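Hi support team,

I submitted a single chain yesterday and got back a structure, but I'm not sure I'm reading the token output correctly. Could someone confirm the output below corresponds to the sequence I sent? I've pasted both exactly as they appear in my results page.

Thanks,
R.
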Amino acid sequence: MQMPDNFVDLIFADPPYNLQLNGDLYRPDQTKVIAVNDAWDKFSSNEAYDEFTNLWMKECYRILKPTGSFWVIGTYHNIFRVGTILQNIGFWMLNDVIWVKANPMPNFKGTRFSNAHETLIWATKSKTSKYTFHYHSLKAMNDDVQMRSDWLIPVCRGDERIKINGQKAHSTQKPEELLYRIILSTSNINDLVLDPFSGSGTTVAVAKLLYRRFLTFEKEESYIHISRDRLNRVIPVEKSLLAYSIEKCKPKVPFGNLIEKGFIHIGECLFSKDGMYSAIILANGSIRYADTVGSIHKVSAMILKKENGNGWAYRYAKRDNKLIGIDVFRYEYEAKYLRN
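Hi R., thanks for writing in. Yes, this is the structure output for that exact sequence:
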């Protein structure tokens, strides 16, 4: 059974890295490092790895919605090959994000720099894609500072690291914090999240936590059991706590449009909230208060004795003998004329 085209909202791919490690690695105390030497990470050549990458990534491109986001992670061993293939297929890169590991493994031999980061590529289906990005939510999450493309996140250790008989269940288990940030920032509640390389199930566990639908693939039976057990323990966040209220911007509807469509009328009076001040609406969209004529913002600022004023927040119209903020008419205009 083939998945439909344009079906998935968000894809996070953590493919084999093709590390091509040779021999065992030991710490200075002669304890053996549990490295990534699994069979699924071995390829006969770079060409074989490129062919594999091209096949799975083309399918991701096919099933991703035009409004969706595609994320892929890798190290210096593979990310440049992956990035080239990604662009050749037609994906449009938005960012490369550096996952800076707060607690990286040292370079025990002292022959290179300690490899303290991995690279993520965030891409869309085309240059013109209308993708989801909760910029303001991420900024709030980052103490009201714009979220940067370098993310300091620890690798999995302690209780988060899944183990079997005291050993890592999966050699490249990703921290939940990493997936939390990706899913929260580039998808919405009830969106469908796909992970084509499930591994220990981090992506689907976080997707379930954040009230997303999820779909994943995994060929290693032991990992499938681990993921199922992990999913069964996840309790989703209460849906009301996941609302992206901070992202909702007021409709960009000029004051004159409300006059043209009859939401407010020429000659009508607009009032301050307490009803003490009133100004009359003129045909060109300006308002007149005493001897002053100007925009709703200019006149409101003059009354408030401020350099600048927000006329939308200060001005009220009378309906059924009640004062109603004129801001409400922008939402009515949007609902009637701007939404599909």
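A quick pointer for reading it: DSSP finds ten helices and 15 strands in the chain. Let us know if anything else looks off.

Best,
Support desk
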